[in-house]
Amino acid sequence: MIRTLPLAFLFILGCVEFARATDVEIFGGLAFWSPALDTRYDASYTPSRVLGINQLFTDPDPRSSARQLLTLQGDTGVGFGLGVNVLPHSVLGFQFLLDRARVDIVGENPPHEVNVTYDTIAFPNPDPIVSSAHFRFEWPDTQGTLEETTLSFNLATRFGTGRVVSGSVSGGLSYFRFHVEAERIGAHAAWLGGHAVLFSELHEMTYSTSVTDALGFNVGGQLDVGLGSHVAVFADGRFLKAPETASAVGLDEHLSADIVTVPLQQIEAFLALPPLEIDPSYVRLLFGLKLKL
User: Fold this and answer.
1) Which of 56, 142, 210, 238 is the most buried (most CB within 10 A)?
2) Which residues pair with 156 in a beta bridge?
3) For residue 45, what is the DSSP state?
């Protein structure tokens, strides 16, 4: 044990010298985001067979169809960013970044169109009569949010060390975590009343995706203007890229005042909504203060 004491002392001494030679910078501020999200979600479905008022969203009728396309486009918004630069070398080092934002989603949608084919009976003739009806609903623009968090680990190289104006270039791996909340999505149902009169209504609902993860990369640069030996203002421009990722879609709540109350879970199971392809990539410009320890 006595022999190991000099080695332990040398190790501790080396760590102290490494810490003295290592520059650590902590920074953060507000960020302007420009998301890449720009997609059209095909939420078309096969309407339920026209039966009684208590049999809505039970049995799809392949003779009928409903066309529903929803546009989702990310809007420019504001978020925040935090980071740490660890620079054991005069030029090279490591960078850790946390970026987070909640930006608006917009989009102009085409009409929601429904073609319904159904059978009626004209007594006393027992043979069914095939009838059809067409419905066209002007659909409101998409409103929603994209919430996203990104963690990045980068290699960095700096320039202009010791000058009033300095900077760095960095790039590396990024981990994206995101989800979408939006409105509206529709589901049409029809039923036969007395004297074979066709009644119908359109259920309107909010929808969201599950929290989804993706891996990608980032590349960017940082420019510092010193305000003293330990404080600087900075600007960091960065491009963060990940592949389009499928995210499960579910219904959240009713928006319409419907004549017939149908549980949301029943409508969701009937529609069997496909996943939404989300591009979590974005460009962001971060401004703030940097502390040099």
Assistant:
1) 56
2) 93, 170
3) B
220: tokens are 């960017």
Instruction: Tell me the two tokens of residue 53.
Output: 């008022």
- Residue 154: HSE in the Cβ half-sphere, 13 Å Cα cutoff: 30
Check if the beta carbon of residue 149 is closer than 8 Å to that of residue 100.
Answer: yes
Residue 214's Cβ-count burial label (10 Å; 0-12, 13-18, 19+) is buried
Q: Global pTM?
A: 0.86
**Mean pLDDT per 10-residue segment, the chain (293 residues):** 44 41 88 97 96 90 96 97 91 95 97 95 79 95 97 93 88 98 95 87 96 98 90 96 97 88 93 96 97 89
* Alpha-carbon span 264 to 248, nearest angstrom: 16
b/e per residue, 184-211, with b = 16+ CB within 10 A? bbbbbbbbbeeeeeeebbbbbbbbbbee
| Matching residue, tokens 């096969």 | 46
How many Cα atoms within 13 Å fall on the side-chain side of residue 84? 8
